[in-house]
Write a structure and sequence with these properties.
The protein has 217 residues and is α+β, with helices and mostly antiparallel strands. The chain has two domains: 75 residues, OB fold (Dihydrolipoamide Acetyltransferase, E2P); 136 residues, no CATH class. It contains seven helices and five strands. Strands 1-2-3-5-4 form a five-stranded mixed β-barrel. Strand 1 and strand 2 form a beta hairpin. Helix 2 packs parallel to helix 4. The chain is elongated and about 55 Å long. The N and C termini lie far apart (56 Å).
Length: 217
């Protein structure tokens, strides 16, 4: 008899599979990024319907198959419903999920990325810090976790921007979203993170295209 495995994680992607199932891509603390099938999750009233939504975070119980897992049940501690109800926040949140999906791998310790993702989504619910700043902090810290960054900003900046860069690199994840910056620092920090991204990431993100359209209108 197969052993039931319990993992803490978040649903990054959810797509239809067959007539009634869902195929999930999840980021877990224990086994990195995994593929999970939720049987019957598209049937109305099925107990796996809600936990199969993107952003769902909690403890998932599943059986391990040859190439994927089969979800049995879940105890969700946060659905992040408030994010889904806000169009702009939902675009930022979807981008964070997409970014994490791009960066993470199976059977690697992705606990830091999972924590960053969780804290970044929580930050989107705080009106005190702008979504633009949250995005750039998330991007830089994700690159730091993956070892793809420069110790100092990649261009000449003011002292405050330099401090912001170094603070994000050095700070523990739970302390990241505790500050705001001036418009000048935001502009410089944004440019520096974008330069860093262009050096290390060769991918266009669908969520960013939607976000760009949304913020330009």
């Amino acid at each position: 008899m197969r052993e039931l495995v319990k993992m803490t994680g978040m649903v990054l992607r959810s797509t239809p599979s067959g007539d009634t199932d869902k195929r999930l891509v999840m980021l877990t603390r224990e086994r990195g990024k995994i593929v999970v099938f939720a049987r019957g999750a598209r049937r109305p009233g099925n107990m796996l319907m809600a936990p199969s939504r993107p952003f769902s975070f909690g403890q998932f119980s599943m059986f391990e198959g040859r190439d994927a897992y089969n979800l049995q049940s879940a105890e969700i501690s946060n659905y992040f419903d408030e994010i889904a109800a806000d169009m702009e926040a939902a675009c930022y949140g979807s981008y964070f999920l997409e970014f994490a999906d791009y960066y993470t791998r199976e059977n690697l310790d992705e606990s830091a990325m999972l924590m960053l993702l969780y804290q970044s989504l929580r930050a989107l619910l705080k009106p005190a810090i702008s979504n633009r700043l949250i995005r750039r902090i998330f991007e830089l810290k994700a690159m730091v976790i993956n070892g793809e960054y420069t110790e100092h900003p990649p261009r000449e900046v003011c002292d405050s921007t330099n401090y912001t860069w170094e603070f994000v690199i050095a700070s523990p994840i739970e302390k990241l979203y505790t500050f705001t910056v001036s418009d000048q620092v935001m502009a410089e920090f944004q440019q520096c993170v974008e330069i860093n991204k262009s050096r290390y990431i060769d991918r266009n993100f669908h969520s960013l295209e939607i976000l760009k359209t949304l913020t330009e209108n």
